[in-house]
TrEMBL record, chain A:
The chain crosses the membrane at residues 19-39, 45-66, 78-94, 100-119, 126-147, 153-173, 180-198, 233-254, 288-312, 324-350, 362-381. It is found in: Cell inner membrane. It comes from the Bacteria. This is Amino acid/amide ABC transporter membrane protein 2 (HAAT family). Keywords: Cell membrane, Membrane, Transmembrane, Transmembrane helix. The keyword Transmembrane helix applies.
Automatic annotation (TrEMBL), chain B:
It comes from Plasticicumulans acidivorans. GO terms for cellular component: plasma membrane. Belongs to the binding-protein-dependent transport system permease family. LivHM subfamily. GO terms for molecular function: L-isoleucine transmembrane transporter activity; L-leucine transmembrane transporter activity; L-phenylalanine transmembrane transporter activity; L-valine transmembrane transporter activity. Signal peptide: none annotated. Keywords: Amino-acid transport, Cell inner membrane, Cell membrane, Membrane, Transmembrane, Transmembrane helix, Transport. It is a multi-pass membrane protein. GO terms for biological process: D-alanine transmembrane transport; L-alanine transport; L-isoleucine import across plasma membrane. This is Amino acid/amide ABC transporter membrane protein 1 (HAAT family).
C-alpha cells in the first residue's frame, strides 16, 4: 500500500508495459498454488507456505511486486480472464488427481458461498452467522429433490438457492428490526436451530444423513470420468469445472453489481443508515435484497456441493462451520471477492495438506484468525475504493 | 403427567435457569462496560469446571478428604483462576480491538473460545472424554409423594441466587460498582473524572468470568459430568438470554435465563414429539421474541434511535 499513495490518483506511466509485472505476479501465484496441490510431504507444504508468506509480506515494499498489484488494478478485466485461464490450466494439470480436484472443487463451492456472505455483510452490512445453515438448506434441498423427484439438475441447483432464500425470508422481520448484536443473535439462533432440527427429524434422514444419486447436467454425466481429448480424467474434474463456472459467473455478476448504483446504495446502507435514509435510499429494500440474494447464492453453492459429495448429514452444518465461512470472509478482507482465494486456501486447504497438524488444526487456525484480527484487521486483501472513470468503466 | 414428574421438570428448569442467568449476567456486564460480546464466555465456564476438577484431583493426591474443604478450595481456585483468565482475555484480545467493528470482536472472542476448548481437549489428560465431576454436596433427599427433592439442588440454586445478588449489590452499592456503572454510561466522562478505564474494564471482565467459573462448577456438581464441548451451547444460550432480556440490564439477563430454561422445559413437556425438539422450540421462540421486541424485553435505557 505504501507504494500506491492514493488509490484515486494512481497514474500508470505512458509507454510502460503495466501488464508485464501483473502477468508475472499471476504466474507466481498460479505456480505456488499448483505446487501446493502437488506437494506430497509436509515439509514441502511448509516451504511453500513460507515462500507465500514472505512474498505476501514483501509485496508492498518491493517495487516489482507492488507494480504487479498496480497492473491488476489498472486492468481488472484482463487479469480476471487470465486468472480464469490459470485456474483451467491447474485443473488440466491435475486431471487425474482425485484428491487435488476434490479439494479444489470444495474450495470453489465454499468461495461461492462466501461470496453470498460478502453480499450480505461486506456490501450491505447485514450480519449472518448462519452461513452453514443456508448452505445446508441448499444441500438438503438437492438431496430431497434428487432422491424423490425427477427434475433437471440445473433446476435443482436453482431450487436449492430458492429454498435457502425462501426459508431465509422467515428471518427477515427480526433481521430488519434489529441491529448489531441483536441481529447477530437472530442468525446465530437460526443456525443452532437448523442443526438440531435436522438431527432430530426423521423425514430428512436424521443424524445419519441422506445419500444422493449420480446426477446428469444437460447430458453431462457429472459422476463419470469424462473422455476429453483422449486423455484420462478424474470424474472430480466435472465438479471442479462446475465450481469454477459458478465462481467465475458470480464474480462477473457481483463485480458488476458492486460497480452499479445498487452497489453504491448497499454501501451507503452499511456505512451510515441515517445518511442513507436521509438521501432517500430505502434501507428495508436493500437489506432484503442483500439478505435474500446472499442466501440464494449460499443455497446454490450448497446444492452443487451436495451433488458432488453425494451425501448430506447435519454434522456438516454446525455453528463451527458457519464460523469457518465467516472467518474466510474476514480473513480475505470483508467485501473483496479476490480476498476469498487466499483465505480459502489458508482456512480449508492448508489443514487438509498438513496432516501432522490435523489434531492441532483447530487450535492453530483459531490462533491464526486471532493474530490476523489483532494485527491485520482489514484482512489479507482489504477492499479498495471503487475507481470510476478508468478504462473498465466504459 | 403426575405431580412427581412435573416437580422434577420444575426443579430441572430452575437449575438450568440459574446457570443460564449467571452466564447471561456475564454477557450483560461485558456489554455494559465495553459494548462488546465476549463469546469465549462459555468456554471460560468450561475451563472453570475443568480447573475445579483438576484442583479436586490435586487435593485427593494431597490426602485432603473433607468434602466441605474440597468444595471450598475447588470453588475458590476455579473462580480466581477464571477471573485471571477473563482479565487476560480482556487485556490481550478484547481491548486491542476497541474501535474495530463489533463484528471483529465477536469473531475474535469466538476464536479465543475455540482455542480454550481445543487446549482442554488436547492438553488436559484424556481431555476429549467426558470427566466424572465429584459429588461434593451432601446427598440428602426429601421425598414428597413420589417426587424426591435433592438437598444439593436446593443448595446449588441458593448459591446461584446468592452469587447474582452479590454481583447486583457490588454493582449498585459499592464504589467499584459506581465506577463500573460510570464507565458503562460514558467512558470518556468517567475517564475525565479520574476513573482508571482499563483497570475497571479488566475488573469487570474478571468479575463476569469468575461468575462463569462458579456456574461451571455448579454445572459439574449438578450433572456430575463435564466435557470440553459444554461451553459452546451454554454461550449461545447465555447470549440469547442476555439479548432476549435486553443487553446491559442485570434484571433482563436473569429474566432471559429463566425464560430460556422455561421454554426448553415447556418444549420438553408440552410438545407432541417429545423432548427432541426442545432446543428448536426454544430458539424459535427466541427469534420470535426478538422480532416482536427488537431491543429485548427490558430495553437499554439509551438505545440508539433515529
Amino acid at each position: 500500500m505504501a507504494a500506491v499513495p492514493n488509490d484515486l490518483l494512481t497514474v500508470v506511466p505512458r509507454g510502460a508495459r503495466p501488464w508485464l509485472p501483473g502477468v508475472l505476479g499471476l504466474a507466481v501465484v498460479a505456480v505456488l498454488l499448483g505446487a501446493f496441490f502437488y506437494a506430497e510431504s509436509e515439509w514441502e507444504v511448509g516451504v511453500l507456505l513460507a515462500i507465500a508468506a514472505a512474498l505476501g509480506l514483501a509485496a508492498p515494499r518491493v517495487p516489482l511486486l507492488a507494480s504487479a498489484e498496480t497492473a491488476w488494478r489498472a486492468r481488472p478485466r484482463l487479469f480476471a480472464w487470465l486468472a480464469l485461464l490459470a485456474a483451467l490450466g491447474l485443473i488440466g494439470l491435475f486431471r487425474e488427481e482425485h484428491l487435488a480436484l476434490l479439494m479444489l472443487a470444495t474450495a470453489l463451492f465454499h468461495i461461492a458461498a462466501c461470496m453470498g456472505l460478502n453480499v450480505q455483510f461486506g456490501y450491505c452490512g447485514v450480519v449472518n452467522f448462519a452461513g452453514a445453515a443456508f448452505f445446508g438448506i441448499g444441500c438438503y434441498t438437492a438431496a430431497m429433490l434428487a432422491g424423490h423427484a425427477a427434475l433437471p439438475t440445473a433446476l435443482i441447483f436453482v431450487l436449492g438457492g430458492a429454498c435457502a432464500a425462501l426459508i431465509g425470508c422467515v428471518l427477515l422481520v427480526p433481521v430488519l428490526r434489529t441491529r448489531g448484536h441483536y441481529a447477530a443473535l437472530v442468525t446465530l439462533a437460526f443456525g443452532v436451530l437448523f442443526r438440531s432440527f435436522m438431527e432430530v427429524n426423521d423425514t430428512f434422514g436424521g443424524p445419519q444423513g441422506v445419500k444422493l444419486p449420480d446426477m446428469t447436467l444437460f447430458g453431462w454425466a457429472l459422476a463419470m470420468p469424462p473422455e476429453w481429448f483422449g486423455l484420462d480424467w478424474s470424474f472430480y474434474v466435472n465438479y471442479a469445472l462446475l465450481g469454477l463456472a459458478l465462481v467465475a459467473g458470480l464474480f462477473v455478476l457481483l463485480s458488476r453489481l458492486e460497480r452499479s448504483w445498487i452497489g453504491l446504495a448497499l454501501d451507503v446502507v452499511r456505512l451510515d443508515e441515517t445518511a442513507a435514509a436521509t438521501f432517500g435510499v430505502q434501507l428495508t429494500r436493500w437489506k432484503i435484497f442483500a439478505f435474500v440474494l446472499g442466501n440464494f447464492l449460499m443455497g446454490v453453492a450448497g446444492a452443487m456441493y451436495a451433488v458432488m459429495i453425494a451425501f448430506v448429514a447435519p454434522s456438516s452444518f454446525t455453528l463451527g462451520d458457519s464460523l469457518i465461512l465467516v472467518s474466510i470472509v474476514v480473513l480475505g478482507g470483508v467485501g473483496n471477492q479476490w480476498g476469498l482465494l487466499p483465505a480459502v486456501v489458508i482456512v480449508m486447504l492448508v489443514p487438509e495438506k498438513l496432516q501432522f497438524i490435523q489434531e492441532y488444526r483447530f487450535l492453530l487456525y483459531g490462533l491464526l484468525v486471532i493474530a490476523i484480527l489483532l494485527f491485520k484487521p482489514d484482512g489479507l486483501l482489504p477492499r479498495r475504493l471503487r475507481r470510476y472513470g478508468t478504462e473498465e468503466a466504459a | 403427567m403426575d405431580i412427581a414428574q412435573l416437580g422434577q421438570y420444575v426443579v430441572n428448569g430452575m437449575m438450568l435457569g440459574i446457570i443460564y442467568a449467571m452466564v447471561a449476567v456475564g454477557f450483560t456486564l461485558f456489554f455494559g462496560v465495553l459494548d462488546v460480546i465476549k463469546f469465549s464466555h462459555g468456554d471460560v465456564l468450561m475451563l472453570g469446571a475443568f480447573t475445579g476438577y483438576a484442583v479436586y484431583l490435586g487435593l485427593g493426591a494431597l490426602g485432603i478428604e473433607a468434602s466441605w474443604l474440597q468444595l471450598a478450595l475447588v470453588v475458590i481456585a476455579s473462580v480466581l483462576a477464571m477471573a485471571g483468565v477473563g482479565a487476560l482475555i480482556a487485556r490481550f484480545v478484547v481491548l486491542p480491538l476497541r474501535g474495530a467493528p463489533a463484528f471483529n470482536t465477536l469473531l475474535i472472542t469466538l476464536m479465543t473460545g475455540m482455542v480454550l476448548r481445543e487446549c482442554v481437549r488436547l492438553f488436559f489428560p484424556a481431555g476429549s472424554n467426558p470427566k466424572p465431576f465429584p459429588r461434593l454436596l451432601p446427598d440428602t433427599q426429601w421425598a414428597f409423594d413420589g417426587f424426591a427433592l435433592r438437598l444439593d439442588s436446593v443448595l446449588l440454586f441458593a448459591a446461584g441466587c446468592a452469587a447474582i445478588a452479590g454481583v447486583h449489590l457490588l454493582i449498585n452499592h459499592t464504589r467499584l460498582g459506581l465506577a463500573i456503572r460510570a464507565v458503562a454510561q460514558d467512558s470518556e466522562t468517567a475517564r475525565v473524572m479520574g476513573i482508571g478505564f482499563e483497570s475497571i474494564v479488566l475488573l469487570t471482565f474478571a468479575l463476569g468470568s469468575g461468575l462463569a467459573a462458579l456456574a461451571g462448577v455448579m454445572n459439574g456438581l449438578y450433572y456430575n459430568e463435564i466435557n470440553f464441548g459444554m461451553g459452546l451451547l451454554l454461550a449461545v444460550i447465555g447470549f440469547s438470554a442476555a439479548i432476549v432480556g435486553g443487553l446491559g440490564s442485570i434484571y433482563g439477563a436473569i429474566l432471559g435465563g429463566f425464560l430460556f430454561a422455561a421454554l426448553q422445559t415447556l418444549g420438553a413437556v408440552a410438545l407432541p414429539f417429545g423432548s427432541a425438539y426442545k432446543d428448536v422450540f426454544a430458539f424459535a421462540v427466541v427469534i420470535l421474541i426478538i422480532a416482536i421486541k427488537p431491543t429485548g424485553l427490558i430495553a437499554e435505557r439509551s438505545s440508539e434511535r433515529v
